[in-house]
Amino acid sequence: MKLDAPIKAGEVALVGAGPGDACLLTLAAAKLIGDCDVIVYDALVSEDVLNMAAVGSDLIEAGKRGGRPSAKQHDICETLIDLAKAGKRVVRLKGGDPFVFGRGGEEMRALAAATIRFRVIPGITAGVAAPAMAGIPVTDRSVNATLAFLTGHEASEKSRMDWKALTQAFPVLVFYMGAKNLPQIANRLLEAGLAQQTSLAIIHAATLDDENTIISTLEKAARGEITAHSPSIVIIGDVVNERISWKD
Ligand code: SAH
């Protein structure tokens, strides 16, 4: 199957919208966004990308920030199924990559269970794009042979993660949704044995107009000295020291 073949009536394309700037869409994403009946998009999808929709296609926001995720997720799946059953050509547009902390898996399973035809178009995930914009290589031969992608929610009180094992296995940690819990994340990592002076970068709104990078240390983050805004990627480890801020 050609990934960029026209969507059929009654089909859903789960499409990654990348980090924000529309020029980072895949060719397939750009084509399908411009040729469908309805786009169901998340809050993080940029205006730039939505502007690529064809005149006349319906845009439905399915954002669920600050809401009750589980209840709303069920509604989103129902919406996708209903639209497909009504014979629409549907694009389900998600920030970054649909399968990286994007609940794309749940939507895929719901579509499959309802015997709806679907396809998946990967996107550039923020955990790679944001460090790149800041000039930080997520792997560097001199620093790391592994890296971990995590959600910042893991640092909450209910954390079941073995932080010591994590820091021993992964010299570089990339946190999604880490802005709010930044002090907790930093404290967990210090408790797990990372050095106070370990470098970290917080990249806010990567590829968008208000993109902004803060370079700091675990110690300062743990003390609550850094104000981080959502959406931000937090990257921790010595790759941050390899940074060249090429945009300047
Ligand atoms: N599926 C998405 C991630 C969704 S989770 C992906 O693959 O990128 C939402 C988190 O993604 C945000 O809290 C933030 O950590 C990150 N994020 C998304 N877009 C971003 C951007 N433009 N700049 C920085 N972080 C971003």
From TrEMBL:
Pathway: Porphyrin-containing compound metabolism; siroheme biosynthesis; precorrin-2 from uroporphyrinogen III: step 1/1. Residues 12-221 form the Tetrapyrrole methylase domain. GO terms for molecular function: uroporphyrin-III C-methyltransferase activity. This is uroporphyrinogen-III C-methyltransferase. InterPro entries: 4pyrrol_Mease, 4pyrrol_Methylase_sf, 4pyrrole_Mease_sub1, 4pyrrole_Mease_sub2, CobA/CysG_C, Siro_Cobalamin_biosynth, Uropor_MeTrfase_CS. Keywords: Methyltransferase, Porphyrin biosynthesis, S-adenosyl-L-methionine, Transferase. Pfam families: TP_methylase. Its EC number is 2.1.1.107. Belongs to the precorrin methyltransferase family. It comes from the Bacteria. It comes from Mariprofundus micogutta. CDD domains: SUMT. GO terms for biological process: methylation; siroheme biosynthetic process.
